[in-house]
Amino acid sequence: MDELPRIRRQLPQQQESVMTLGQYIKQLRTDMALSQPQFAERMQVEQSYLSKLENDKSTPSNEVFRQLLSALSMDVDAFMSGLKDKGNMASLKQTPDLDNWYASQQVTFEHKQRRLLYSAMLLIALGSAVFYVGFQKVLLSERLYEYRSEGVVLAGEPEDIFTVWARLTNTPEQREIKKQEMHKRKSVEIVLTYTYKGTEFTTAIGEDKRLFRQVVTSNRQQSRLANVLMQFFGLLSTVAGLVLLIIEPKLSRQSR
Fold first, then answer.
1. Closest C-alpha among 113, 94, 115 to residue 105
2. Residue 188: per-residue pLDDT
């Protein structure tokens, strides 16, 4: 039995969630501290007609509605700001200007909804593509090419002096002397690069140079920060797009 009074007390609150056009006009007039005769004069209508409007016994024509806006010093957007969430749409749309306002709101809603959906799909597509490029190393290979130089080649010497020096000697004594010389000159230098420079290349050192040859047995891999960042931002963009798809209905409803 104790529940009945509570239910009865809740009913008026639920009914207040929907407001008719007449109730809203009366509320606006009351907020302006104007009596019916005063407000009717401002609207340039009969008091009896205003009474019918406030009691929802009559629906204003478009001309009368515009006189109402003039009396309130409002435009349609300002007028509907108080009715947007709790107005009786069926009743309000009987007035052409209000019907047009609802139609424009629907168009705006659909445009925003499409923008949100397109944005979500773009984020997902772009994020997936960027993640794939980073994960598969499409743009930036992570293979390291290894090149080795045995030492400095002096001016006038063959570039491959460190491999053919023995052919340049005629006697065992010359070969032994040359062997010791080449051993002293030997200074190995390794170059690791993501760029393939061919099977061999040279770098100048004044008048001398170094010959670098590819170590074909080398198969080194090293992560590149750019690929890691592409995977991270690609994943972030994809997740953002999916979240936007999930919350899109709520965001679209808030714009109405």
1. 113
2. 95
